[in-house]
Specification:
This protein is mainly alpha-helical and 484 residues long. The protein is built from 19 helices and four strands. The strands form two sheets. A two-stranded antiparallel ribbon has the order 1-2. It has a two-stranded antiparallel sheet with strand order 3-4. Bound molecules: arginine (ARG). Arginine binds next to helix 7.
Length: 484
């Protein structure tokens, strides 16, 4: 943003007119342009405009109600604020860097529109409690948006999961084929991870309170009706201590932490999409709409969007860490360092929404190659634990059974064949306990169906998980719809 928004060469044309700062009473000289630049938050906090205006409306009404403003002044100020809102919405508002921040930009324009009366809007208020309020309102809106998108992604995963209880792929540990699982089971893991992300965002509301009326740090010289302001702005409670209200940013930190958890979960799903779409795995294919080519290698189909969701998680960790560093050791109450908080918060909000939407779209668009996935499950000796458990059923202690199954894997691996292709005599030569019919033990459907413990990958257990996930999704949808 230049001094005049949208006029890059403005300063070359003519010197700007002298600009009177609302706080300029004790100052004689103009601010150094470079200081003005480093000091201004307007280039980014203009995004707070709707919240700033909502806060000002509630503040003006409250001042009217307690008799600090005449009824006529109250309505003229409210009309003026409405006009400012209209200009911002229409894009005709003049953004001037010399206003410093959104709070003073709004007050400047209000005063231009309603005259000196505009100066009364800041009665009993400081930018410190004002910005704390704006941030709270911004975060609340951000959380609501994330919640909708998290639930949409849960829904997209659930849709893909339904009906895939019989689709088998290898489950991995150490990225080595470990035990076969169903696709539904694998996708449900992410549904439940996202359920916790949603719960974290919902819980964030408990850290939220209404700061206005705190003033600069000590409270204000008016019997401000803070409860009325809180009611109008749909807060459950007012900040109980003025110093805490203007100094604290732990709610924003918590918000960033919730975003980061979610972004980390998404990055793991994204990584699996990348792996599944690789030629090495070949479990899935991303349609053209979600793949890009290479400028040099004509054969390439790159899963860039999934890679970016994976990569963007780094930014979330960085911003959370930077924000923690910003807060660490800051003395009470407000310090200008806090102006930087918005950079981290705004970026995380925007990035998380994009990641959530893109991931839901990719999950829905993906086509899964059941044949290839099954082949991988078959070829990786992922049924070895089940052979061991079969031997346990024959009375062998698990540790010995583990060794026998290991020898069986070695025999199959030496010949480059899956366990299911070993003949009866191959089996008996490894252990007399492996009699005829043991081939059934390694049939993938049987192996998957054997995981009957609660939360396991057996189809009936997955059926329960599908039901539970759908119920949780519904409950969360209701909770989100009921948010004030
Ligand atoms: N632009 C400031 C911020 O974002 C608003 C608060 C300014 N307060 C002050 N005492 N200078 O934090």
């Amino acid at each position: 943003m230049t001094r005049e928004a949208g006029s890059g060469g403005g300063e070359a044309r003519s010197a700007p007119p002298p600009h009177v700062k609302p706080w300029g009473g004790r100052f004689q000289d103009e601010q150094a342009p470079l200081f003005e630049r480093i000091n201004a938050s307007l280039p980014f906090d203009y995004k707070l405009a709707p919240y700033d205006l909502a806060g000002s409306r509630a503040h003006v009404r409250m001042l009217g109600a307690i008799g600090v403003l005449e009824p006529e002044e109250t309505s003229r100020l409210l009309e003026g604020l409405e006009a400012v809102r209209g200009e911002i919405e229409a894009g005709s508002f003049i953004w001037d860097l010399r206003d410093e921040d959104i709070h003073m930009a709004v007050e400047r324009r209000l005063t231009e529109l309603v005259g000196p009366l505009g100066g009364k809007v800041h009665t009993g208020r400081s930018r410190n409690d004002q910005v704390a309020l704006d941030l709270q309102l911004y975060l609340r809106e951000a959380v609501r948006g994330h919640l909708h998108l998290v639930l949409d992604l849960m829904d997209a995963l659930l849709r893909r999961a339904r009906g895939t209880q019989q689709v088998i792929l290898p489950g991995y540990t150490h990225l080595q084929r470990a035990q076969p699982v169903s696709l539904a089971f694998h996708l449900l893991a992410y549904v439940f991870m996202l359920e916790r992300d949603a719960a974290r965002f919902l819980r964030w509301r408990e850290s939220s309170w209404m700061p206005l009326g705190a003033g600069a740090l000590a409270g204000v010289n008016y019997a401000a009706d803070r409860e009325a302001v809180a009611r109008e702005l749909a807060f459950d409670r007012v900040a109980p201590n003025a110093m805490d209200a203007v100094a604290s940013r732990d709610a924003a930190f918590e918000y960033l932490a919730a975003c980061t958890c979610c972004a980390l979960n998404l990055s793991r799903l994204a990584e699996e999409l990348v792996l599944w779409c690789s030629q090495e795995f070949g479990f899935a294919r991303m349609p053209d709409a979600w793949s890009s080519g290479s400028s040099i290698m004509p054969q390439k189909r790159n899963p860039d969007a999934a890679e970016l969701v994976r990569g963007k998680a780094a930014g979330f960790i960085g911003r959370l860490s930077a924000f923690g560093s910003l807060l660490k050791g800051l003395p009470l109450a407000y310090n200008k360092d806090l102006q930087e908080d918005k950079l981290y918060v705004f970026a995380s909000r925007e990035e998380l929404d994009v990641c959530l939407e893109a991931t839901a779209a990719m999950v829905s668009a993906l086509s899964f190659d059941e044949v290839q996935a099954r082949k991988a499950a078959e070829g990786g000796y992922a049924q070895a634990t089940d052979v061991a458990d079969y031997l346990v059923g024959k009375g062998l202690p698990f540790r010995e059974a583990h060794a026998v199954a290991g020898r069986l894997v070695a025999a199959a691996a030496a010949r480059g064949i899956p366990l299911a292709e070993l003949t009866a005599s191959d089996l008996v030569s490894v252990s007399a306990l492996l009699e005829e019919g043991v081939q059934e033990v390694v049939r993938l459907e049987r192996v998957v169906a054997g995981k009957i413990s609660q939360g396991g990958t057996a189809p009936e257990r997955v059926g329960e998980q599908l039901g539970l996930a759908a119920a949780r999704l519904q409950a969360l949808r209701e909770a989100v719809a009921g948010l004030g």
